[in-house]
Amino acid sequence: MTDPRLTLMEAIATRKFVTARYNGNTITLAPHMLFERHGDLVVSAMNPAKARRSDEEPGLGQFKLAGLSSMELLNEHFEPLPSYDGTPPRSDDSLILSV
């Protein structure tokens, strides 16, 4: 079994989508950043399947790595969101890797 941290780091470095189980559902994510918050690893990622209003721009959700399972790297690339600036969400978050 592949370490989900390594899968996620490869996805960020190569700008590839991943699939994972989250709250009992399989989701596809475009991971933009991996950071540490209070000792937990967290990924900021866009969920392209998330329902949005027609005038709402896609945004990044935050997912604790411990809550994601069965992570797989897809052979499909994504472009980072135009509004993405690479800054961790909170000043006390520690950046590990970013697109």
Automatic annotation (TrEMBL):
Keywords, comma-separated and alphabetical: Plasmid
Superkingdom assignment: Bacteria
Region (Disordered) residue spans: 79-99
Protein name: WYL domain-containing protein
Organism the protein comes from: Novosphingobium resinovorum
